[in-house]
Structures are given as structure tokens and as C-alpha cells.
Write a structure and sequence with these properties.
CATH architecture of the largest domain: 3-Layer(aba) Sandwich
CATH class of the largest domain: Alpha Beta
Strand content: 15-25%
CATH superfamily of the largest domain: Periplasmic binding protein-like II
Order of helices and strands: HEHEHEHEEHHEHEHEHEEHHHHH
CATH topology of the largest domain: D-Maltodextrin-Binding Protein, domain 2
């Protein structure tokens, strides 16, 4: 065999070997467009590891967890980059728990959530607690449709926060004074912001990282309402480190994947465990989306910009992940 054939054979062997180590990865995308940024970052990191990645169409969280769980022992990898802990832990449990779904170290930390009202109304009527709306006179201030009850902009019905809001309204005996408006959150919050701009009092639920806090700034335009006492089905306490209690735990977001990834694809498992993203970076990107930069090409540009700005960390993550094979 001549030298040329030897070289061709060596190259062919290298390609085959590389393909053997490359995993087929499916990134499960949620229906919340603002969670696309963090997902795309993980996708790009996986590509840098040499893996093939496909992204699904947007699905609800319940479908996402079931999809991942149903592939628990699959040789392929299925992952989601937006599991809220502890808010959605009950969803993991319902899908089969740790035997089917692996949850990795915190990906995004310090994610706050709670009820907010416009600061003008809060100051004028000294409203500090969601429990204050048990008073029909206070609740009526936030009546948008004219039925005498406060209109609360809440979550999509299938989200974990929706269950907590229902629980709060029951335990705090607020069902007689508050109407909980469920549906497309993006549409509901757009109406809420429009009402604020016309000077109407507003009451809504939101979370961080999300672009709303860039439009309605807590402490300036709006204020968080606290709760008078604990009532949360997901934990024994919801108090924050500063003593405030918004009725919801400060969450961390995690990457979750089918459990087999921890034994069959250790480089991917390592990457999922070590990658970190600042809540401020996500909020900043989400604000760009709210200002019109929301097309897929825009999000991809934001991701590439983030990867470039964090090149040192990215290279270190890839090196450590590759070393774990």
C-alpha cells in the first residue's frame, strides 16, 4: 500500500472514530421565547464538544419533562435548559423522578418571582401585602373589567407558578376579591403594561430573569407585594436572605436530561454540571427581545456575542468536559 492510500485510510479511521464519540442530542425547547437564549448557549457549547444537536419546536413544560423521561435509557441525549427548582420539582417527580431525569448543578441562580403592583397605588393606599387585597375596597382598585374584583395577571395554566397562585388564593382567602386571569402570559402582560401606561393600577405576577423588570422597574415603577405568612406547597419557607417574603421561593434554573446521559455521555454530563449563566445576562438579552430583537437570527447573534465575551470561561468548560470522557 502506497503512502497516499495509508493517509486516506488514516483520515477515514479518524472520521469513523470521531463519529463514534459524537452523540445525537435533542434540545427540548419551551414555549417561552425568552428561554431560547440560554438553550442556544448550551447548544453551541455541545457543538464545540463535537456533538450533533437538533432543537424541537416549543412545547409545554409538562410535555418537555415527559419527553425527557420517556428517553431515560436512550443512547441519545434529550435535555432542557430551563428547569425551575423548586417550582417545577413536582413535575420531575410526576414524570418518574431521578431514575428517569437527571438534574444538574444550578445553571442560573437568584431567580426571583412574585406579585407586583404599581408603586403609585402602593404608596397612596399603603399596600404592602397580597393579603391586603382581601379588603374589597383595596381589591377594587385593581378592577379592570368592572366586576368589583381585582384583576390579577397570572401564568399560563400549565406552568408550575399557576398551581402556586391557585394555592395562595385559596389559603389566603382571596378568591372572593381577586380574579386570576390565566392564558397566554405574553398577551396578558402586554395588556397590563398598556393599562399602566394609561395610569390604571395594575396587579401581576412575574419572575426574573425576564424583560418585564426592564420595562416596569421594581422600586421605581412597581413594588413587590409580600405575604403575611407562609403558604406554599413546594417548601416550608419562602423567606429570602434579606427577610422579605414574596410567597415564592427564589428559584435556580437547572439543565435536566434523560438519566442515561450520566453514564453514557460523561462529557455532556460534565458540561451540564459546570456551565453557568448570569441572571443579569439573561435579563439583558430578554430586554433586547422586548425591544424588537426577537427573531431567531437576533437570538443567534446575541448568543455568539455572549460566547465571544465569555471566551475564557467557555474554553475552560469545553476543556474540562472533554477531559471527563
Amino acid at each position: 500500500m502506497n503512502l497516499k492510500k495509508l493517509l486516506i485510510g488514516a483520515v477515514a479511521s479518524t472520521v469513523v472514530a470521531s463519529s463514534l464519540f459524537a452523540a445525537k442530542v435533542t434540545a427540548v425547547k419551551t414555549t417561552i421565547a425568552e428561554e431560547g437564549f440560554q438553550l442556544q448557549i448550551v447548544v453551541e457549547l455541545l457543538k464545540k464538544l463535537g456533538h450533533e444537536v437538533e432543537i424541537t419546536n416549543g412545547v409545554g413544560y409538562d410535555v418537555a419533562f415527559q419527553t425527557i423521561a420517556s428517553n431515560a435509557q436512550n443512547d441519545e441525549v434529550y435535555f432542557m435548559a430551563a428547569h425551575w427548582d423548586p417550582l417545577q420539582n413536582i413535575m420531575i417527580k410526576g414524570a418518574g423522578g431521578a431514575k428517569k431525569i437527571a438534574k444538574f448543578s444550578p445553571f442560573i441562580s437568584n431567580c426571583a418571582q412574585g406579585y407586583l403592583i404599581d408603586k403609585k397605588t402602593a404608596d397612596k393606599y399603603n399596600i404592602k401585602y397580597i393579603n391586603d387585597l382581601k379588603d374589597p375596597k383595596i381589591a377594587k382598585l385593581f378592577d379592570i373589567d368592572g366586576n368589583g374584583k381585582a384583576d390579577l395577571t397570572g401564568c399560563d395554566a400549565g406552568w408550575g407558578c399557576s398551581k402556586v397562585i391557585d394555592y395562595h388564593l385559596d389559603k389566603y382567602k382571596l378568591k372572593d376579591t381577586i380574579d386570576y386571569n390565566k392564558g397566554s402570559y405574553s398577551a396578558l402582560i402586554a395588556d397590563t403594561i398598556a393599562n399602566y401606561k394609561t395610569g390604571k393600577p395594575i396587579l401581576y405576577y412575574t419572575w426574573t430573569p425576564y424583560w418585564i423588570s426592564g420595562k416596569l422597574v421594581p422600586g421605581k415603577d412597581v413594588v413587590f407585594l409580600q405575604v403575611t405568612h407562609h403558604a406554599n406547597p413546594n417548601s416550608k419557607s419562602t423567606k429570602l436572605s434579606n427577610g422579605a417574603d414574596y410567597g415564592f421561593n427564589a428559584n435556580t434554573q437547572h439543565i435536566v436530561a434523560n438519566s442515561s446521559v450520566t453514564t453514557k455521555h460523561k462529557d455532556i454530563a460534565k458540561l451540564f454540571d459546570i456551565v453557568k449563566l448570569s441572571v443579569n445576562d439573561v435579563s439583558g438579552q430578554n430586554l433586547l427581545m422586548s425591544n424588537g430583537q426577537k427573531k431567531e437570527k437576533d437570538v443567534r447573534r446575541h448568543v455568539q456575542s455572549w460566547l465571544k465575551a465569555n471566551k475564557t470561561k467557555v474554553n475552560a468548560w469545553i476543556k474540562e468536559a472533554k477531559a471527563s470522557k
